[in-house]
Design goal:
homodimer, mainly alpha, Tetracycline Repressor, domain 2, DNA-binding
Chain lengths: ~190, ~190
DNA sequence: GTCTATACCTGGATAGAC
DNA sequence: GTCTATCCAGGTATAGAC
């Protein structure tokens, strides 16, 4: 997501620095001037490419959300069983946390509706509805226990998202993929000894 | 928390309205003027009771954190087994979400370190370390599976916190205590059919 | 302790040259 | 498309009367 091996145009550069600053200090603690200085671009240039500050935030969200959806779609095509799908999604999320920390931070650990108007909470976004779909199908096919899908989903992915947030906040110090097996074991078979 | 059957003094009134506005619109979308108008107090009065806007946020956090710690302490005194303790804590959290939604919102669903300086992420706060303690003791006594405590904790409480956030965001429409049994079942014995 | 008035500054956004 | 200079609103915070 936001591949920046070589920043081609100004637009990319602006998005890239904005993402860095938004995740680092938060949206409201980042002024347009900050972005301007950090990216060594002019104010005019920023406002040429984006209508306003909020539009930058919106563009970032759309970009990241889209790559997440693509990734999960790939997993769903390649994998039929609900269990394998869930585990593969977790694997992807954990790896992305290490490889694209800022993007994951922005996607999972920011309150977009506080700065993007008409934006619902993340859980209503497309990647999340895909995750719920996996669960619903899993229950229908008898692979997953027949409980309220939302509860099951929150048990699997909610816990994972919290773990990702802990990692982003620097509370967990080992790379998340190292915990994948253990986490998955715990989710599938519970915590009871 | 923040018992406001009858608002005695101005200080309480300010805190109470600030909490409402902070959770409703977010800290940065709430100006001191907003608090002043909404509480029908004067700016001078606010700055008499609090050093600055941040101090209001700090006071709120301390107050809510303190009542949560008291509540969990009570549970730990009354309940010996790790399982019962966890379930009781979940019950408390779910009920508090319904009865003190704003307080829970502020505690669990806000990024304090973006507006309170020198404040770590919530997970480093006292209520959360108590939760981890419950798990660690449970593992030691053989009641909980012998896995990394953080992973187990995030599986139980992380999922619960996400569920609380979903409820706060209006995505879950039934009161959380209704899901307690199901959630707990799912956590203890896993999601595998 | 509470009020009103106001100072001061930073933030978002625009204008217009190049 | 990019720059510099600038405008203006709204934010936090203070001063000083009552």
């Amino acid at each position: 997501m936001i591949v920046t091996d070589k920043i081609t145009d100004r637009r990319e550069l602006i998005l890239d620095t904005a993402l860095r600053l938004f995740t680092d200090r938060g949206y409201f603690n980042t002024s347009v001037r900050d972005i301007q200085k950090e990216a060594t671009v002019s104010t005019g240039s920023i406002y040429h490419h984006f209508e306003n500050k909020e539009a930058i935030a919106k563009a970032l969200l759309a970009q990241i959300e889209s790559t997440m959806v693509d990734e999960i779609d790939l997993i769903m095509e390649a994998t039929p069983s609900a269990h394998d799908r869930c585990k593969a999604v977790l694997k992807y999320l954990f790896e992305a946390t290490e490889n694209n920390r800022d993007a994951m931070h922005y996607m999972l650990h920011a309150k977009h509706n506080e700065f993007i108007s008409n934006e619902g909470p993340i859980c209503t976004s497309r990647p999340f509805s895909l995750m719920k779909t996996i669960i619903v199908e899993g229950i229908r096919k008898g692979e997953v226990r027949n409980l309220t899908p939302e509860i099951v989903a929150v048990n699997i992915f909610g816990g994972a998202i919290r773990l990702i947030c802990l990692r982003i906040d620097g509370v967990v110090d080992k790379p998340l993929p190292m915990y994948l097996e253990e986490f998955w074991e715990c989710t599938c078979y519970g915590i009871t000894a």
